[in-house]
Structure to design on (576 residues):
């Protein structure tokens, strides 16, 4: 019997107008624009570079250009917007720095170009590469200011006042300096977004939206990214005008890339390895596959205990509950889905960016089914496989059978994970502080001395608040926040309340909190107002559950009445 639903009727056209569907449609339109921009400019060589760009090249000691530099530099010199898909290590930094020496005017002491990077480490690397290219030649006499969060404003403001023509920095600190009046974009005509996918992964999209209001309409914009997921496509649509496209990640010009990475991990350390990868990748949504229902249940509980937004589906789950979990994933209300292969059949989420395999599938065909959950509909995706010494050979045999190119990677170290998480946290804190209303800022100011003291004497208490705020920001979609009561309390009470909260925490949460200790100490010296903001938030939450003198008085009367009632009952019982 034919399905009578409207979707299958030839007389009815069903249009999905949800936010997610509209985002997918915008991305499709953006990719069509890219596909149509097939006109290619002649490749550049070291000999064809303009004089100042050639002087910068000579200062580095390079004798030739890399492929990405050969292809991208002509677009920058021709002032044409461009998207470049190119992996780390391809020479892309030189691709956008070398032309700037020709485009920027050394005599004009104003900001003419802005390079945005996702992390302070990458911003420092770009700045160092610029300094190396500049050398001591009069032809390359351009100054650059390096700006990023988590450090004092003074040196950065000084560099801007001295007339830097180029600014290299992270979006959050750039916004702060603009809104404080220390920087102007009146003379800006070049915008470069480096590692655009990582920038969105760091949580910079709100800052990018705010930054757009300060950018001049007449400018040239360039985006460099290792992958082109839907979020990067949408970002390109917002910031670039009829861009060209160069795809150099896999040796061709296709954006349909699925990268397969694997890691050799001891069997008993796969759970913590999974956490490290999730923290580094920071996926909007992902599926985690495990071979057994028992592992699925364990991983879902482990991820939740670690503060992540996770749910599970296995063969035991009812169809109704399974569909509810799947709908949450499709609607963007669930970040991590843990599943067995059988339970995951039929999953179709078009913009799923990551698949994690907790173990190598026992059935080789399952590898293709698992990895096929990402990089759908022409989008990019990454597959991460946790292999052991015993399953490594099976994984390589599967890859050879299906023609999959595996990339062996080392797991990120705890120091690398802590660094990226701390920097992401700084982004969240600065963003939250930037939007505080005036009356809330006054409440924060009174807590700055307390923040300084705690950062020096009991940093673990503030690290507790940092961890809570981090997971609230990362998983704000999971559930509604508790309502806050706007009351002010004596700041002297806060350390005792924090100690009580810290003592109640489980061991796992304390270990999770410990990673924020270095960051907390650093912020206590550099930006105590951010920690004071968290203290103020904690004060508001505590005031919602803290008993007032009237409440304690009523509670005492109630307990007194209850005691008298019990005594009366006992006396009646004895008389009977």
């Amino acid at each position: 019997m034919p399905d009578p639903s409207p979707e299958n009727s030839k007389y009815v056209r069903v249009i999905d107008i949800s936010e997610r569907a509209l985002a997918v449609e915008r991305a499709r339109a953006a990719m069509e624009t890219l596909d149509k921009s097939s006109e290619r400019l002649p490749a550049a060589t070291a000999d064809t570079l303009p004089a100042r760009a050639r002087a910068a090249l000579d200062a580095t000691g390079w004798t030739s250009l890399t492929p990405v530099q050969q292809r991208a530099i002509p677009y920058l010199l021709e002032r044409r917007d461009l998207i470049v898909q190119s992996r780390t290590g391809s020479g892309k930094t030189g691709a956008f720095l070398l032309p700037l020496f020709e485009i920027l005017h050394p005599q004009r002491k104003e900001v003419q170009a802005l390079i945005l990077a996702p992390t302070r480490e990458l911003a420092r690397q770009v700045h160092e590469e610029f300094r190396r290219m500049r050398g001591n030649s009069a032809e390359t006499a351009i100054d650059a200011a390096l700006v990023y969060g988590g450090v004092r404003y003074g040196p950065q403001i000084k560099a801007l006042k001295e007339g830097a023509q180029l600014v290299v920095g992270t979006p959050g600190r750039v916004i702060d300096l603009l809104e404080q009046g220390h920087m102007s974009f009146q003379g800006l005509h070049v915008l470069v977004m480096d590692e655009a996918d990582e920038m969105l992964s760091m949580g910079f999209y709100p800052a990018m939206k705010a930054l757009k209001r300060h950018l001049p309409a007449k400018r040239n914009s360039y985006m460099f990214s290792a992958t082109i997921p839907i979020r990067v496509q949408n970002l390109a649509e917002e910031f670039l005008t009829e861009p060209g496209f160069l795809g150099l990640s896999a040796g061709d010009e296709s954006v349909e890339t699925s990268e397969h990475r694997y890691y050799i991990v001891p069997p008993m350390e796969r759970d913590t390895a999974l956490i490290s990868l999730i923290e580094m990748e920071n996926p909007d949504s992902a599926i985690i596959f495990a071979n057994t229902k028992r592992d699925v249940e364990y991983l879902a509980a482990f991820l939740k205990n670690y503060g992540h937004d996770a749910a599970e589906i296995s063969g035991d789950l009812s169809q109704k509950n399974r569909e509810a979990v799947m709908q949450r994933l499709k609607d963007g209300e669930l970040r991590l889905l843990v599943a067995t292969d059988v339970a995951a059949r039929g999953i179709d989420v078009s913009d799923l960016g990551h698949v994690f395999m907790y173990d190598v599938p026992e059935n080789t065909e399952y590898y293709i089914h698992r990895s096929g959950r990402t990089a759908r509909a022409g989008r990019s995706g990454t597959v991460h496989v946790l292999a052991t010494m015993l399953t490594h050979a099976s994984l390589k045999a599967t890859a050879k059978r299906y023609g999959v190119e595996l990339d062996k990677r080392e797991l990120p170290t705890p120091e690398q994970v802590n660094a990226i998480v701390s920097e992401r946290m700084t982004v969240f804190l600065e963003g939250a502080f930037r939007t505080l209303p005036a009356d809330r800022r006054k409440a924060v100011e009174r807590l700055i001395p307390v923040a300084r003291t705690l950062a020096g004497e009991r940093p673990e208490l503030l690290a507790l608040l940092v961890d809570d705020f981090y997971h609230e920001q990362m998983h704000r979609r999971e559930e509604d926040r508790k309502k806050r009561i706007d009351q002010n309390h004596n700041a002297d009470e806060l350390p005792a309340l924090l100690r009580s909260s810290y003592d109640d925490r489980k061991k796992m949460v304390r270990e999770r909190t410990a990673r924020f200790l270095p960051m907390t100490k650093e912020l206590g010296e550099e930006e105590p107002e951010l920690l004071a903001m968290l203290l103020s938030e904690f004060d508001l939450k505590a005031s919602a559950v803290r008993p007032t003198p009237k409440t304690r008085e009523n509670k005492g009367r109630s307990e007194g009445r209850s005691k008298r009632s019990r005594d009366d009952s006992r006396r009646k019982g004895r008389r009977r």
Notes: The chain is about 50% helix and 10% strand. The chain has a mean pLDDT of 78.
